[in-house]
Write a structure and sequence with these properties.
globular, six-stranded antiparallel β-barrel, four-stranded mixed β-sheet, alpha+beta, single chain
């Protein structure tokens, strides 16, 4: 079964980190009607449509049709396949007795349908997810600017290639019960009836999806002989850059994706940021940043002299470095 909804789509903008830090109005991704687009969203509700179910969100297939299409990014195609994400409450597992005695050893788990949050709870959760992507884009852009600048200034090029990665294009879609058109710009009337985080589709499905760094880690979640390790190693280095350039306040974690695309990041901050409040999402494990210098293992990217990064306490010699000796 498929649902068609009239939406207003708010794309997550890309801004420089200096802009975000220098302008209080840019600290958070805001829902500005003047920067949004009307359209329709078709959400596939069939069981086969689920791309994945994580700890906080479901991911389903969808089709986005903006009128007119956005000039770039998500929604720039007339009809674009997207991933539709929503938070959920994982219900407790119920057990059904298979005997009259009701013995626990003879009980079998009963599958329960996914229970959604109320719209009042769903919107702020998805807004924090969008804000996390907003900051992650800025932090990764800053990281590449640092890398490119250091390589340009170095006497010799580094003995490795730099992977070119980016986060998926994304935005929030708000569905309303009706749409009224004014003389200048369309405006929504009626009641908010749905909230969705829409993301660019990563091709290849779950088989091609790789978790490069777990949320509570400062290093690769893959071993050196596994596919994707080189990217995971590079992403651990980007954490080092972000930590150094932010004065030890913030890094991107929970790196995952496929090919050149990344999705579902977490922003981890030092406990001093936001006076201990969670300003991004539920995955902000502040202790990871506080202990970064102790647990981060510097790799060949970190150690290249052209980057001039301080080496932290945990060091090791990687397989790539052994091969180059």
């Amino acid at each position: 079964m498929q649902a068609f909804e009239t939406i207003q789509f708010y794309p997550i903008p890309t801004r420089q980190l200096t802009e975000i830090l220098g302008n209080p109005w840019y600290r958070s991704f805001d829902l500005e009607v003047s920067e949004s687009y009307p359209g329709r969203l078709r959400v596939d509700q069939s069981p086969r449509s689920f791309v994945g179910i994580g700890g906080f969100k479901t991911a389903q297939s969808g089709l986005l049709m903006l009128t007119p299409p956005s000039p770039s990014g998500l929604g720039s195609e007339v009809q674009e396949n997207v991933v539709v994400k929503r938070p959920f409450l994982r219900p407790p597992t119920l057990y059904v007795s298979t005997s009259n005695t009701g013995s626990p050893s003879q009980n079998l788990p009963e599958k329960r349908r996914i229970i959604r949050l109320s719209l009042g709870d769903e919107l702020p959760k998805l807004h924090r997810e969008a804000n996390t992507l907003y900051w992650a884009n800025a932090l990764l852009t800053m990281t590449y600017e640092f890398i490119d600048g250091a390589i340009l200034s170095a006497d010799a090029r580094p003995p490795f290639n730099i992977p070119r990665l980016r986060f998926v294009n994304a935005g929030l879609a708000l569905a309303h019960s009706q749409l009224t058109k004014g003389l200048a710009k369309p405006k929504f009337g009626g009641t908010l009836c749905g909230v969705y985080l829409l993301e660019e589709k990563i091709e290849g499905g779950s088989d091609a999806f790789i978790k490069y760094i777990h949320n509570m880690d400062c290093g690769p979640s893959l071993s050196a002989d596994m596919d994707g390790y080189e990217i995971a190693e590079f992403l651990a280095f980007t954490q080092h850059v972000q930590y150094a350039k932010s004065g030890g306040l913030v890094i991107i974690s929970d790196y995952q994706g496929s090919g050149t695309l990344l999705t579902d990041p977490q922003i981890l901050t030092d406990p001093s940021v936001g006076d201990g409040l969670d300003i991004f999402s539920e995955g902000n494990v502040e202790s990871t940043v506080a202990a970064f210098e102790k647990h981060h293992v510097c790799n060949r990217f970190c150690k290249w002299p052209g980057f001039s990064l301080s080496q932290f306490g945990a060091t090791s010699t990687t397989t790539h470095e052994l091969l180059s000796m």
